[in-house]
From TrEMBL:
Keywords attached to this entry: DNA damage, DNA repair, Glycosidase, Hydrolase, Iron, Iron-sulfur, Metal-binding
Record's keyword annotation contains Metal-binding: yes
Family to which this protein belongs: Belongs to the Nth/MutY family.
UniProt protein name: Adenine DNA glycosylase
InterPro entries: A/G_AdeGlyc_MutY, DNA_glycosylase, Endonuclease3_FeS-loop_motif, HhH-GPD_domain, HhH_base_excis_C, HhH_motif, MIG/MutY, NUDIX_hydrolase-like_dom_sf
Cofactor(s) required, per the database record: [4Fe-4S] cluster
Catalytic activity, EC: 3.2.2.31
Organism the protein comes from: Deinococcus depolymerans
Length: 361
DNA sequence: AATACGGGGAG
DNA sequence: CTCCCAGTATT
């Protein structure tokens, strides 16, 4: 029912400081804004990072929360938020901490580049002070268009519209758009944003998406935007937006070795983008057609260790990998670490738990 | 425009 | 099982 707004030719996606031209806007903007903000003022969630005056929140707390909440549901982010703020109450404390301590606080939360970038950015902020604009925030590592809009609207009262999964779904349904492009969503969000209360508006749209305009079974009966919603009128609101096509998840066999005990073990620091910076049991992916025991010999040769008996097998699903880990014992005269002191991925936590329960399987 | 990047909740 | 989550960096 609604045609996509034309995108300005040279405008970079995501950075839409300028609203793309919108043809005849289909809603009465003041009434729609008033309806959603009234709903938000009545039923908005009381979350720990929402303390402080509207539009003048503590930038450090807002920032940490927004990084933690990237691709992470609020209930889970809240646990890590409390843990992280206790460990690093100020940006100075975060900047002064070693990376291992930061990753330990992030342990199990996933997407560990968030923690590495946040730590690096904190060192810039401790030196230069907090950015005073959307563009300043955007320049920090780990801060993209979403986070820059969130922090600048919530802490600086800057009129910037966030574009996250909630906003995408709410606007796709409101307009009846099945395949909203990022630029389309940003344009609509910019138009809708209440410039008088940008922070509250952003939180209101996200709250609506999280609690009412949910992916599978939206509760249109209680939605303050129902009078204007094309998807609700269609009778099948859950059909908007259409599901994203996802690449199949490959199966990746891996061999790992436990040298020592599940409590005191030889650990390696992972490098690269996958689990980079975390510690873990020495491990190697199997080559094509290789059997686990041959990979174990290769791994042990690298470590100068002697291969031992199998301890078990486990599977671990990540977003884009399904790992089958074959765990063996090994012997070597190498320094061990107390595993509870190290920052480990869930995969390594599972492997150590498996080794501690050798009767299973 | 596609892909890599964790882990878990909800249906 | 599938789909999604207060996204970002890299290609």
């Amino acid at each position: 029912m609604v045609s996509a707004a034309p995108v300005a030719a040279r405008q970079a996606p995501y950075t839409a400081a300028v609203t793309p031209p919108v043809p005849a806007f289909p809603f009465p903007l003041p009434a729609l804004r008033a309806a959603l903000l009234a709903w938000f003022d009545r039923t908005g969630r009381a979350l720990p990072w929402r303390a402080g005056r509207e539009g003048a929140r503590d930038p450090y707390r807002v920032w940490v929360a927004e990084i933690l909440l990237q691709q992470t549901q609020v209930v889970r982010g809240q646990v890590y938020y409390d843990r992280f703020l206790t460990a690093f109450p100020t940006v100075q404390a975060l900047a002064a901490a070693p990376q291992e301590a930061v990753l330990k606080a992030w342990e199990g939360c996933g997407y560990y580049a968030r923690a590495r970038n946040l730590h690096r950015a904190a060192q810039q902020v401790a030196r230069n002070g907090f950015p005073d604009s959307y563009d300043g925030w955007l320049a920090l590592p780990g801060v993209g268009p979403y986070t820059a809009a969130a922090v600048s609207s919530l802490a600086l009262n800057e009129a910037r519209a966030v574009n996250d999964g909630n906003v995408r779904r709410v606007l796709a349904r409101l307009h009846g758009e099945a395949r909203p492009s990022p630029a389309w969503v940003q344009g609509r969000a910019d138009t809708l944003l209440d410039p008088q209360r940008p922070g509250a508006w952003n939180e209101a749209v996200m709250d609506l998406g999280a609690t009412v305009c949910t992916p599978a079974a939206p509760r249109c009966e209680v939605c303050p935007l129902r009078p204007w919603c094309a998807a609700s009128a269609s009778g099948t609101p859950a059909a908007y937006p259409a599901p994203k096509v996802r690449a199949p998840v490959p199966d990746v066999p891996v061999v790992a070795v436990l040298i020592g005990t599940p409590q005191q073990a030889v650990l390696e620091r992972r490098t690269g983008t996958l689990l980079g910076g975390l510690m873990g049991l020495p491990a190697e992916p199997l080559a094509a057609g290789e059997v686990p025991h041959d990979a174990l010999r290769r791994l042990c040769a690298r470590l100068n260790a002697r291969p031992g008996p199998p301890l078990g097998r486990l599977t671990h699903v990540m977003t884009h990998r399904r790992i089958t880990l074959h765990l063996y014992a090994g012997q070597a005269d190498l320094p061990r670490q107390t595993v509870t002191d190290a920052a480990l991925s869930r995969l390594d936590q599972k492997a150590l738990a498996l080794a501690a329960q050798p009767t299973l399987l």
